[in-house]
Each structure stands twice: as structure tokens, then as C-alpha cells.
Design brief:
By secondary structure, the chain is of the alpha/beta class. It contains five helices and four strands, in the order βααβααβαβ. The protein folds into two domains: 43 residues; 62 residues, no CATH class.
Amino acid sequence: MVLVIGGHALAECYSSLTALPVSPAITPGQARRLIEENIAEPADEIVGLGGPEYLGALQRMTDLGLESGAVYDALHVLCAETASADELRTFNGTDFRRMPPEGSTDLVVL
């Protein structure tokens, strides 16, 4: 199995880790190390998107009538499609079913 990560997912993970209401809090340095060691290093590919891809995600959102934070889910979908991933795996079936991947990428809800 090949592990592909959308580059923006690293930033989303950092945001979540450093905002967790735990004591002691996860420091920025700890969050960076956790992400590097557990996500970035094991990944076979980190997919970055450019301006045209971001605009394409916004168009998809517009076409589907979706708003707000769903755009971040759309970026995950677009990264999976860009990498020609076999599967996009998520625990968040409710949101991702509103914008399933196109082409050969299957949505797998865990």
C-alpha cells in the first residue's frame, strides 16, 4: 500500500494538535515532531496543490452548493484525485459523501 498525504493536511493536523484541550498542552515543537515522525516521514508522497487546483476546488464547492469548512474536505478529495490514489480513507463519511472523489479513486469510510 502507498501512503499519500495532501500537503495541507499537515497544517490541519498541526492546528488540531496545538489546539487540543489537554494538560500539558502539546507545544508547537512537539506537534511538528509528531507530524514529521508519524505522518510526513512514513508517507510515500506528499501532494501539493497550486493555484489552478485551489480554484478548481472552489468551483467544485460552488457546483455542489457547499459552504464553509467543507472546502478543506474538498482539498483532501482533490489531492487523492491528483495522486490517482486507489482509495481516499476517512472517518468522516457524512461530509465526504457530499463530494466523493471522481475517476478511479474510491471513497472508503472507516
